[in-house]
Amino acid sequence: MTWTSDRPAEEAPISLLGWLRVAVRGLCLAALVFGGLFVLLALRLAERPLFGLRRPWTPYITQFVCRGAFYILGIKHETEGAQMTTAGAIVANHSSWLDIFALNARKRVYFVSKSEVASWPGIGWLARATGTVFIRRDPRDAKIQQDIFEARLLVGHKLLFFPEGTSTDGLRLLPFKPTLFQAFFADPLRERLAVQPVTVVYEAPKGEEDRFYGWWGDMAFGPHLLKTLSAPRGGEVRIKYHRPLAVADFQDRKALAKAAEVAVRDGLPKEKLTAGKAYDKALGPLS
């Protein structure tokens, strides 16, 4: 499923000064990302045989790169609430490719992503290097995926899911799909794990539309990256950590998914949800 809007995001032409910002920021970002990737892969050569699935060193490289990316882009990054320290998983709303940087910048997490991402140029390479778990949306793979989740969670990895199943414009929250929550109810995990809901909130740069950082539907990555790099001023992203939900406190995956959805929705500012409803009313139904 892919969420899309009847009205595309506003795309203003990039000025000469904007292209200069693209060049400077783009070169700095590329040096940071690919330089960090080189260091990460070099460390992983020693980390893998010594620690196997455990990654005691390389996640710090990922965090450094992600924090630096927001500095280069001029986007303010803030967090609220306490991060979960016990074993478990993270679930969050999904608005943009920037979510990957935003959620990695403050917490050591490993993303769960659709298998197609592994073949994407650039993003796919980074995802594989940072330990992303790739899954196919095929019921026949459910047992294999559950085994993978169990192995990663039992060694202390905090897996991060986007239960909406798609990204949006950041002005709404789609119902959480309960399918992936089933893995938390396996016998080795249910009594040990908690799930922490996290809300990601973007504020657009001054003078830009609310959906500036949103990346959805069939929007291409390249133009969205150029728009972000060329912006004369950056916006802000806030990560809100909510109270962890003990898996053992819930009867089944649907109840847990609903509780997590409610927590994430409560973290979205009312004005964001109101703006989303205004778009829906003014532009017609969104699919």
Class by helix and strand content? alpha/beta
Ranges with pLDDT <50 over ≥5 residues?
A: none
Cα radius of gyration in angstroms? 19 Å
Straight-line N-to-C gap: 10 Å
Spell the H/E element sequence: HHEEHEHEHEEHEEHH
Q: What is the residue-mean pLDDT, rounded to a whole number?
A: 89
Give the count of helical stretches. 8
Kindly state the number of beta strands: 8
Please bin the fraction of helical residues. 40-55%
**Main sheet specs:** 8 strands, mixed
Shape: globular
Q: Which percent range describes the beta-strand content?
A: 5-15%
Q: Topology, please?
A:
Blueprint (H helix, E strand, L loop, with lengths): L15 H36 L6 H16 L2 E5 L7 E5 L5 H7 L5 E5 L8 H7 L3 E3 L6 H13 L4 E3 L32 E10 L17 H10 L5 E6 L3 E2 L6 H15 L2 H14 L4
Helix pairs in contact: 1-2, 1-6, 2-3
What features would you highlight for this structure?
single chain, alpha/beta, 41% helix, globular
Task: Describe the structure in your own words.
It is a single chain. With 287 residues, the chain is of the alpha/beta class. The chain has a domain at 76-218 and 234-277. Helices cover 41% and strands 14% of the residues. The chain has helices spanning 16-51, 58-73, 98-104, 123-129, 142-154, 221-230, 253-267, 270-283; strands at 76-80, 88-92, 110-114, 133-135, 159-161, 194-203, 236-241, 245-246. Strands 1, 2, 3, 4, 5, 6, 7 and 8 form an eight-stranded mixed β-sheet that branches. Strand 3 (110-114), helix 4 and strand 4 form a beta-alpha-beta unit. Helix 1 (16-51) runs antiparallel to helix 2. The radius of gyration is 19 Å and the shape is globular. The model has no long low-confidence stretch (mean pLDDT 89).
